[in-house]
Specification:
globular, binds methyl 4-O-methyl-beta-D-glucopyranuronate, hydrolase, alpha/beta, Rossmann fold, 413 residues, eleven-stranded mixed sheet
């Protein structure tokens, strides 16, 4: 665990050309496409509070659920441009081999070919025992291994995301299988490169019926740095049915602006200025904005809200100040307004407790997790999933929603 890792000094931040990204969401008509389009950068944007998720870039209000689909498409473009780097589409061609390696284990070997380059990654699957339900097994994709308990009737895929895009330190920039395919100078940060891999896994499973995985019932999880990644995958890949970031902290379910506030109030938390020096989770371009967060036309409440109305529950640990616990609580409170607006507040959960090591699972949280699995992966629609609570005593820092959230939650349904 490197939670208290010292800030690395003297790192040169290379400023690359701005990316020109496109939304991956499908837009119904040409009119809708124009309505949802956005410049990739908004040079006049300035807001020290959390940006109102219910405003389009030109100031129009988000009024319907369809409007939210458009707003999501705008956020998709903006977040790629400012923060994550560009998320490519599928490769020119892909071949898939499903290999049973034991009674209840298999590998899904995925080879991508793109512009003369090729690359293979092969996540493993552990299957439940017995025969699959109609439609196939639900499945959890676990970034770099599992750190939450998963019910025995859900398959678990282990996805070696750190092989897809390394995340050791600054020397990991452009290193990993993703960059073997797209080139070391691809603007994609490691986190969006991992997202690309999740999308290819789902593509591969969609064309591999003999794997008996239900591609409508796929969850993504990871802890800490991998929790940041799980959140981004849920935000950018609409086929992810359930997103479960665990102790993702700053860069995950925390907001940049709130983490800076928490630091200014005297806590030693991870901030955007630190994170771009520590690792390659975000694009080189993001370093252009970390010293004046007001210019970001989104924050991570917007990233999380891209998941809405699909379900998400995030878990945080109050014992580790570095995770910026107030920021996560405030950020998810702000994101929650979008699920509320869409009439599905119980699709968004947040639990923040202490008393356990980083990325260890306290049994006390299992009922909330099982409820999300039961309802959204195991077809039990009536299970209660209203969970939103924090045990945090925010020391000297005060969470004052009115200071950060200046919007009224509309009704979009
Ligand atoms: C919470 O995730 C990260 C954190 O952002 C880093 O600053 C720290 O070095 O590592 C954490 C982590 O991934 O721990 C396993």
């Amino acid at each position: 665990m490197q939670l208290f890792k010292a800030v690395q000094l003297g790192v040169t931040l290379t400023l690359l050309n701005l990316v020109h990204a496109r939304p991956s969401e499908q837009v119904a008509s040409r009119d809708a496409a124009a309505f949802c389009s956005t410049p990739s950068l908004l040079p006049n944007f300035n807001n020290s509070k959390l940006p109102n998720p219910f405003l389009f870039d030109d100031g129009r209000e988000v009024k319907t659920a369809a409007d939210w689909d458009c707003r999501r498409a705008q956020l998709n473009t903006l977040i790629q441009s400012y923060e994550s780097g560009a998320l490519p589409g599928p490769p020119q061609s892909m071949s898939v081999h499903f290999n049973k390696t034991g009674n209840a284990t298999a590998t899904l070997s995925i080879t991508s070919h793109h512009q003369g380059a090729s690359m293979t990654f092969a996540p493993t699957i552990a299957f439940p025992s017995g025969s699959p339900p109609r439609g196939g097994w639900p499945m959890v994709i676990a970034y770099d291994g599992l750190s939450i308990p998963v019910p025995s009737n859900i398959a678990v895929m282990t996805y070696a995301n750190s092989d897809m895009a390394q995340q050791n330190d600054q020397s990991s920039r452009g290193v990993g299988l993703f960059y073997d395919l797209f080139g070391a100078n691809a603007s994609a940060s490691s986190m969006i490169a991992w997202t690309w891999g999740v999308s290819r896994i789902i593509d591969a499973l969609e064309r591999t019926p003999q794997a008996h995985i239900n591609t409508q019932k796929i969850a993504v999880t990871g802890c800490s740095r991998n929790g940041k990644g799980a959140l981004m995958a849920g935000a950018f890949e609409p086929r992810v049915a359930l997103t479960i970031p665990q102790e993702s902290g700053s860069g995950g379910d925390a907001c940049w602006r709130l983490s800076l506030f928490e630091q200014n109030e005297g806590s030693v938390v991870q901030t955007a200025t630190e994170i771009v020096q520590e690792n390659v989770w975000f694009s080189t371009n993001f370093a252009n904005y970390v010293n004046d967060l007001s210019v970001l036309p989104f924050d991570h409440h917007s990233l999380a809200a891209m998941i809405a109305p699909r379900p998400m529950i995030s878990y945080e640990n109050t014992d580790f100040v570095w995770l910026s616990p107030l920021s996560s609580f405030g950020c998810m409170s702000a994101a929650h307004t979008v699920w509320e607006a869409l009439g599905v507040a119980d699709h968004h959960g947040f639990e923040q407790v202490g008393g356990h090591p980083h990325c260890a699972w306290p049994d006390s949280l299992s009922p909330t997790l099982n409820a999300f699995f039961d309802r959204f992966l195991l077809d039990q629609p009536n299970v209660n999933t209203t969970f939103f609570q924090s045990n945090m005593v925010f020391n000297n820092v005060t969470w004052n929603p009115a200071q950060w959230i200046d919007w009224k939650t509309p009704r979009l349904h």
